Each structure stands twice: as structure tokens, then as C-alpha cells.
Amino acid sequence: MEECIFCKIINNEIPCSKVYEDNKVFSFLDLAPVNKGHVLVIPKEHHKDILDTPDTILADVVKVAKKIAKAVVKATNADGFNIGQNNGSAAGQAVFHFHLHIIPRFENDGLTAWPHKSYEEGEMEKFAEKI
Ligand code: AMP
Ligand code: ZN
């Protein structure tokens, strides 16, 4: 994947602040953090999103993400953390190499949760059935 910025980071072609590496998984600081200490966890193999990524690789990434989340919380003294993952530009995906965001969270850090909508009468059951 010649044009993939995350493949270039893995291959040491562009710099990053690495926090973890093994045979299959790589992790580094997001350069535009939601909160300081925000990290990205990625598979070394290029896959564009969660649907494109083989289950075994997803399992590897999630196992590492759990370890790194603990380290992020410890290092930043966070009160909690979010794990996020965007699929498709409509969902905010900007880099098309599958990645998890781990974002440390602090009481009263000023970040608001997602807005919530509501269902019309009977609509919820229809969505559940379709899905
Ligand atoms: P997403 O919107 O889920 O595709 O997230 C992509 C993330 O990658 C964004 O949060 C960017 O700030 C981050 N990012 C893009 N380029 C770099 C880079 N060279 N080093 C570190 N983080 C990056
Ligand atoms: Zn890539």
C-alpha cells in the first residue's frame, strides 16, 4: 500500500511516537489528540476497515489495545477511556488503514458524548428486525 500513511509509519518511512510494536501490531500517538495520550493501535497488515480485516488480526489488535489502554490510563492518570473506530468517510474515517483510537478521559474534560435521537412508535422494533 504505497500511499498509505500508516503503512509508511510502520515501515519507518515517516516518523511517529511509537508506544508498542510486535510481529503483527503497531501503536503510536495520534498527532492531533482528542486528549493528550490519545493513541492509535493498528495491524501491520494493511486492511482498510473493520469489515476488511480478518478476524484473527482483529483479535490481535484488540488484545494489544487492552494492554495499551491500561498503560494510557496509568501514564495519563485518566479517569476512564474511550475506544473508537471509524469505518467510511461518512463515519469520520480519514485514514483507510484499520485502526483503533484509545482516548484517555478525565472528569469534566469538556468533551460531550454523541448526540442521541429518538424513534417513532414501532420504529425501534422494525430496525431491530431488519438488522
Ligand atoms: P480516523 O479519522 O479514524 O481515520 O483517524 C485518523 C487519525 O490519524 C486522526 O485522529 C489523525 O489525527 C491521525 N493521524 C493522521 N496522520 C497521522 C500521523 N502521521 N501520525 C499520527 N497520527 C496521525
Ligand atoms: Zn496501510
What does this structure look like?
This protein has 131 residues and is an alpha+beta fold. 27% of the residues lie in helices and 19% in strands. The mean pLDDT is 97. Zinc ion is lined by residues 1, 4, 6-7, 46, 97.
Short description:
With 131 residues, the chain is α+β, with helices and mostly antiparallel strands. The chain is built from three helices and five strands, in the order αβββαββα. Helices cover 27% and strands 19% of the residues.
Which distinct ligands sit in these coordinates?
adenosine monophosphate, zinc ion
Number of strands: 5
Average pLDDT level: 97
Order of helices and strands: HEEEHEEH
| Helix proportion range | 25-40%
Distance between the termini: 33 Å
Main sheet record: 5 strands, antiparallel
Q: Whole-number radius of gyration?
A: 17 Å
The class by helix and strand makeup works out as alpha+beta
